[in-house]
Amino acid sequence: MPIKFLKTLFENIEETDISKLLTEMFKTPKIKFDIEDFPSIFTEKIDKIILDKKAKSDENYVSGIFTIAYVDEKHYRCAFELYFEDKEGQINSISANSDLLDISNLTDDAIRGLKLGKIIKFKISEPTEVDQIDTK
Asked: What does DSSP assign to residue 87?
């Protein structure tokens, strides 16, 4: 349920405001997230950013990473970096960082995991148009 709520919460955020996107994704109070929830939450929106970039340019998607970083006892931060290669072989990137996020919206297990690992990374695979079909 929290994942569906978050998807609708930031559905109308412009892709160009990706820092705001990351902040809105995880600042919702009273909903506890586990580390395993993060890919489900960010995948659809980041896939759209990748597909839009590919459609608007001659660049190919190379790779990407989404990170969750422990900041202090009260905060964590999310970020992503997406890498694209142009026809000349030049690598370009799109990146964004969230504001400081309240650690209280994470489950106890997620907080422990972040404190132990300090940074948790998820690889962002290249989406396909098929991934974007709404199956509701």
From this structure: T
> What whole-number distance in Å separates Cα of residue 46 and Cα of residue 59?
16
CA 110 vs. chain centroid, Å, equals 16
Segment 34-80, tens digit of pLDDT:
888 877 777 888 888 899 888 888 899 999 999 999 999 999 888 88
Cα 42-136-20 angle, rounded to 5 deg: 25
Residue 79 neighbours by CB under 8 Å, 6+ apart: 22, 66, 67, 69, 95, 96, 97, 98
Q: Looking at residue 117, what is its pLDDT?
A: 84
Backbone dihedral region of 104: left (phi > 0), alpha (psi from -120 to 50 degrees) or beta?
alpha
CA angle, 23 as apex, 37 and 34 as ends, to 5°? 20
Quick one: how far is CA 68 from the chain centroid? Answer: 9
